[in-house]
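Thread amino acids onto this structure.
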């Protein structure tokens, strides 16, 4: 499938998810990241199911997926919904993935990293303004409600 065959919103979601894990910007992600990305997209697959999906799109068994391979694998799991409940559920799952210790909050540095991964065009000043707005009490942490607010306010269509 080419990029033109995906829904515009679906492609945006896939591109953001891919970019968040293509840390060195080489246009590929490691197999190890695929399961985490699928979890963020709301899919809880075991290792065997994930490996089967990867084999379907990477016949060369390279250990990495490029963006087109990733789209072929993940697009079936990205449903474009306007449903606020679905959005909240996806954001809650993403929050849980980043709140590795289960403390119920993220540090502002973690949020800064997430925002930069989602939109690398945000300047340091833009990030500072977003963080200052969301962490108005200066606690240095962001709970789920604050996370939900910043994600829906700053990354809507």
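Threaded sequence (157 positions):
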């Amino acid at each position: 499938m080419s990029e033109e065959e995906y829904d515009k919103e679906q492609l945006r979601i896939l591109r953001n998810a891919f970019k968040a894990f293509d840390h060195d910007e080489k246009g590929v992600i490691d197999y190890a990241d695929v399961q985490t990305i699928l979890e963020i997209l709301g899919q809880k697959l075991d290792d065997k199911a994930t490996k089967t999906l990867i084999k379907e799109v990477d016949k060369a068994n390279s250990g990495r997926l490029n963006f087109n391979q990733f789209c072929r694998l993940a697009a079936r799991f990205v449903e474009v919904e306007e449903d606020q409940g679905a959005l909240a559920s996806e954001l809650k799952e993403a929050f849980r993935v980043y709140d590795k210790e289960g403390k119920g909050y993220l540090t502002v540095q973690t949020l800064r990293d997430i925002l930069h991964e989602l939109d690398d065009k945000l300047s340091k000043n833009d990030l500072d303004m977003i963080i200052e707005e969301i962490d108005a009490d200066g606690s240095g942490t962001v709970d789920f409600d604050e996370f939900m607010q910043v994600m829906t306010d700053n990354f809507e269509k």
